Amino acid sequence: YVAATVLLIKAPGNSIGLMMMGFPAGTSVAVLGIAIATGAGASSPLAAWADTIGNAFATVAIMFLPLMFLHFPDGLVPSPRWRFGRQPILAGAAAGLVAALLNGGWGGDPEVGSLDSPLRATTSPVGDVLSAVFFISMVISFVVGGASLVRRFLRSHGAERNQIKWVAFAGGFVASIFTLVLLVFGVQAIDQTWSEILAAAGIVAIPAAVAIAVLRYRLYEIDRLVSRTVGYVVVLGVLSVVYVVGAVWLPSQLLGEETPLFVAASTLAIAGLF
User: Quick check: 96 and 63 in contact, CB under 8 A?
Assistant: First the structure.
């Protein structure tokens, strides 16, 4: 909301602000629906409708992200030929909205929601078909949005290139964090509270980068930021490997169990390397 509001005020002629506002607006309705459903109780018809409508808005909200990527940074598509990129976004949003209303659940998938839609029994299998259309369209939309950014980057220079670097850096950073979490903690980490907080922080990073890029605030620092981030990631990776090898793998190979001596030695080695 903050990033979108800043863009709407500072760059009123740029449609990116409106596109960015669509995501938190839809998500807010979804949260309100979940709250109403929780308060009404699972057996109440109001709960089923509130949860269904909330998931429908959340489904549409996600499609504002590829739409924003397609029009970044000036609010226009890269060229008239790229107008076709709007078609899977609009089709996916429409299919997802109807699927969620008919089936319940995010994207029309009842397993991604707590309650089924009151319309599910009488409209099946229409909702299932539209849900499949939504998920396929969503993937295509993000691919097209990403491809448009790559195309802009290859043909850009100066300020526009730095603008795209900011968004690419934010997206790459978020993807790297989630990949690291999944590799270290596994899929079960998705249901943890700290993982949900991390996901929220990652979602915030992208619109923040978009706002900075559109307003062209201190764009020249992106190269330094990327350089330092890569350096810190490399250091973190080296220290993690040293600790795992010294405190876990090596003692298990030599003694068959972990010992405080190896843990202490690994800690001292990490401190020295750092």
Answer: yes
Query: What's the angle, vertex CA 227, arms to CA 216 and CA 68, rounded to 5?
Result: 40
Q: Which residues contact 173 (CB under 8 A, 6 or more apart)?
A: 202, 205, 229
pTM for the full model? 0.69
Q: Is 271 left (phi over 0), alpha (psi -120 to 50) or beta?
A: alpha
Give the H or E element holding residue 61: helix 45-62
Q: CB 180: neighbour CB atoms within 10 A?
A: 14
Q: Exposure of 226 by Cβ count < 10 A (0-12 exposed, 13-18 middle, 19+ buried)?
A: middle
Nearest to 88 by CA among 144, 127, 130, 147: 144
pLDDT, one tens digit per residue, over 33-58 is 888 887 777 677 788 888 889 989 98
